[in-house]
Amino acid sequence: MSNLSVGMIVEWISEQEDSTPLVERILWVNPTASDLVSIQLDEPLALPVWKRLADIEEALSNGSAIIRVADPYTHRLHPPESFLLKHRQRRDAAWKVIEDVVSRVPDIYDETIRGGLVADAANQHSVHKMTVYKYLRRFWWGGMVKNALLPSYERSGGPGKEKSANSASKRGRPTKATVLRDAPPGINVDDSIRRIFSVAFRLYVDTNKAPTLKRAYSLMLSNYFNVGFEVKGGVRVPILPPAHQLPTLEQFRYWYKKQQDIEASFTKREGARRFALKRRPVLGSSTKMAFGPGSIYQIDATIADVYLVSSLNRSQIIGRPVVYVVIDALSRMITGLYVGLEGPSWLGAMMALANAASDKKAFCSKYGISISDEDWPCKNLPMEILADRGELLSRHADELTDSLNITVANAPPFRADWKGIVEQQFRIANERVIHWVPGAVRRVARERGDLDYRLDAKLDLNAFTEIMIRNTLSYNKMHWMEWYRHDEFQIQSAVDPFPRTLWNWGIEHRSGCLRTRPQEAVLLALMPRGEASVTHLGIKWQGLYYTSETAVREQWFIRARATRTWKVSVAYDPRNIEMIYIIQPKGGIEACHLLEKNQDFAGYMVEEVQDYVADRKLRKAEIKTDILQERAEFMAQVDAVVKAQENLTEGAVSTDQSKHKRVKDIRQNRREERERVRKAEAWELAEQPSTPRKIGSSSQSNASASSSTVESRKRGFLNILKQTRKSDEPDDPTN
After folding, report:
1. Which of the 8 DSSP states describes residue 534?
2. 328 is in which domain, residue-wise?
3. Is 248 exposed, middle or buried (0-12, 13-18, 19+ CB in 10 A)?
4. Could you tell me which of 258, 314, 315, 573 has the fewest CB atoms within 10 Å of its CB?
């Protein structure tokens, strides 16, 4: 028995690649299954033809023909209600003409009978025979249904084909001036004008300045359709021809819409970021990304729209806090929260992730809030964390993967919508609480005389944190998510769309995604990592020196001085420079304390120390030219002194003086030079008289005798002293 039936479309495969395939529709199958009737589609003068059923089945079996599933006339068989309402009368009128003819099966397919039937229908309804044939072809082509007789406006006007410009007649709707005042009809847009349009679209429309089409149209006329320029008021002004010789704004707008690449146009006008956020199609759901609680956490930060005061001096306004939120993708449960003044940075993200994996009872109790484990049952790590290209794109996040086996994914640049769940949470928090507390940021523009809303700040950081915790508890418990898309299993369980309810349902039915790690392991994995050097001065890190019990016990510093330095891996809390932690190769950590000589840096953060070191390096780089200049001057001065001394020495040494003679008397020369230097360097505290005192001859002779006696004694004493020194004096170091 044949599988061919009425209405099927058969496409014949041609061996020539460039030839148009033959497509025909089966109109009738002989009950004896020996032959059938078909008509070729898209052939203007096609009529039904008889074919042997066996020939078509053979062609289908050997691949020379196929059954086409897609019907090109389907869109006409199920028109929109508005189209059917407008054209129903035309369809019914055509149907009335051929209603009796098409019921004469198989006579209507017999060419010897068909002519008479068509002529009778034409006479009966007062239409031309060609009109009857036109209705019959549309009826047969469309699958032999009544709606096939609806007007084929999709074929009108040569869709997809550009119309050639004809100067003899103006295409398109005439302008009002043409109709009312018999004004010139205007011009057609030919190829040359379209090229100008394309240039204008690129230069004046599809730019980041985002001008209007009207402004772009005016710029195009001024720059490309002027017939010259004239100077008015010192300004060079373009002269435009009459309006009927210019393309109209409507033509400009028509061709822009016709040629516009919507995505490329919006991207150029608004940028890739705004297009991705506001213009892109939204076809997916973040909920479908997650299987169960802990499958995916989303994390992000925002600067809260509220100003706070200092808890120590409440008259001081400290600015706006940073709020980090960690939220579960499946249940929308807020699993982690951090409110502080850090960031947005890795430090803030570190605190939020640590909070997500910690016991919430202890966290809430620090702010005077008493809860049970059921109120906030989130104290685990997820399988995956989705963030933006900020904190979790740093090398610090690698430890989450290496130590905790958490996959870290980052959204593309400027695609905050990829984290729509957590981004939406910030809006909810603003609407629920933040915009209603003292010091909230007002989004309306301030006018003269308005009070500065920053002066309304009344809350300190602890109070605002308490408010955010209470908001989180309320949200998790009773925030009805009307828009939440339940899957089939949640529908079967009749789960209410509350975050905590969905979380508990997921724990019961889809557990296995949450992960538990010791608190110390979590904190260690979240701490930033670095490398320190073991030196004889201490464990050097960020220019500071530390020590530890193991380092002292195992004599690290002595070994480093005796052999060489080596590296050790360390973790640190950026807020506490006084302590770092050595990561042991076999696991575990050991605390290292800042040495006393670096205690001046105690109380500072790592960033402040890094800034100090960087500033010192920058200062050294700034004065490097001065240092090099001073060094050059010093070397030049030394060279000048050396050269002068070389000249003096070479002039004093005679050529006939032997080398042996020059080095023979070094000791004697040294003693003589020392005596000379001593006399030159001797201190004389008493002032010498300017005029010698007059002395009588007798007295003078007595003094001379006495002086000679003293001199002789002195020479004897000096000779003895010289002999003693000569025997005890060491060799001259220059020998």
Report:
1. E
2. 286-520
3. middle
4. 315
